[in-house]
Design goal:
Order of helices and strands: HHHHHHHHHHHHHHHHHH
Strand content: under 5%
Low-confidence stretches: 198-207, 408-414
Mean pLDDT: 86
Distance between the termini: 40 Å
Shape: globular
Number of helices: 18
Helix content: over 70%
Oligomer: single chain
Amino acid sequence: MTPHPLRVLRTLPTPVQLLVAGTLVNKLGSFIIPYLTLVLRRDFALDDTHAARLLLAYGAGSLVSLLVGGFLTDHLGRRSTLLLSLFGSGTIAVILGLVSSITVFAPLLVLLGFVADLYRPAASAIIGDLLPSAQRATGFAALRTAVNLGFAVGMSLGGFMADWSWRLLFFGDGATTLLYGVVVYLYIGETRPPSATAGLTADDGGPASPWRDGVFVQMLVVALAFSLVAFSHITELPLTITMTAGYPARLYGLLVATNGLLVALFEMAAVERLRRFRRLRVAALGVLVTGAAFSCVGLARHWTAFLLVVVAYTAGEILASPQEMAFVTDWSPPAARGRYLSFYQATWSVAIGLNPLLFLPLRTRLGDAAFWPLMIVLTAPAALILVRLDRVADRPERLRGATGAPPLAAALSAEPGV
């Protein structure tokens, strides 16, 4: 019998449950990004060039925010980084809703990009701090469930708000972010392990710098290849569905909503049921399933075929993402956990920029029939890397951040003000 997601969530420590709940509240108000282009073009009357430059600056700030967030997570602490990001970005978002001049709006928007994603490595590090290795994939699945469910609902609400007043988008986003900050301030304490505050080198003398860690660099290659393929569902896939197959945009919207709904309904339960299997082998299967799903896009142009593609790549995403995050958390030394997780998460931000830059011209040149089969060419080597790392790296004696029982010191410190 498949466990209910809420039942699985209740098996996690209270601070993790609150972190997941806060993330859901925050993502319910994620109105800015999906409708930012519309606001810049319609409400501030920017032309395509200036809007694109401002969006690029915001995206660059978001990438830097992730990397700086990893550094702050290790040096300043998880709780302090969360509070800085949530209260800072929430305040800026509210101010943006009050601004009428683009000369003030633009620099504030770029500043928001530099602050908004500081919290992501800190939130992921808290999962690693408070959960034993066996539960970490479940914890990351819970976090992803909150993100997907909140974003799906927030997208729907945001459409109505954008039609009413663009300012409501920023007020709503800011208010939910500030509410998340209040939850962290009142209920989530510092979880950084005491050993991580003593120094920033690995306990076993191994490299604490992610860039000097050969195993981790291979994981970055895997994550980049996987995310490049996965982001095709928001860049090339809508073109195939609407322009090649001739379906209306609303069909594509329903398919994307199906992806988020499936993740919200099944990811936590699936990850919990897969705990007895070797995680990197599960992740390798997920990467292959995702590549195979996208490779089949060009084979048929009926909506049922596109639905099967969405279901298949969602299954691959469910299999791969939480298991990879759990391995990265176990592999990284506790003193550098924030930086490792931030670099891993940054591959997705890089892929958002690279995918349209590389794949859109390639699809135009090759056509759907030749373009989509290339997805398996990217994911098959990534799956092989994961299988190799399962043999040589995912071993108890090599995992510097692994714990076989709930990290007691972190759990005891997870009280506000301690």
